[in-house]
Amino acid sequence: MANPTPATRQTPSGRPLKDGYQSLITFAADPDMALWEKRVKPPGIDGGDKIEQTTMHNTAWRTFAARSLKTLTDGSFKFAYTPRSLDGVEDAINREDSITYEFASGGSVIFFGYLQKIELDEMEEGKQPEGTATIVATNWDPVNDVEAGPIFIGPTGTGTGTI
Prior knowledge:
Blueprint (H helix, E strand, L loop, with lengths): L23 E4 L8 E6 L3 E2 L4 E2 L11 E2 L5 E2 L2 E6 L4 H8 L4 E6 L5 E13 L9 E8 L2 E2 L4 E2 L3 E3 L6 E3 L1
Antiparallel strand pairs: 1-8, 2-7, 3-6, 4-5, 7-10, 8-9, 9-10, 9-13, 11-12, 13-14
């Protein structure tokens, strides 16, 4: 029986983001959407739940396997708005689009998805009115009718990648 192989952690290449400012979100069909980003939560990557592989032949441990497919998780952002903003935003709800999250570093993630919902916070004296928008990744190109995963672009000169 083989044992797991130990490995030594190495220093990652590049450098981490130093500040979250200025992170912006662009909808290709409405690049000047009248919502002002305040806090941005980019989508993540989820491999899904483990798949049980245990049989009556196991002797000491339950065994599992990883799934084959990945999920680009929902992203969101807190925003400031005006009541007039909501008219244009209504048109964007459930509209399949190309969405770009631009990071403070100049890098970005671009994917197909849609604006699922906006929720407005309670209004209170002494606080700017805010809301939360939820963006769902579909990973589906609605023009060419094909699966299309996200594209990750590093800061200028660091290249692109897909997963």
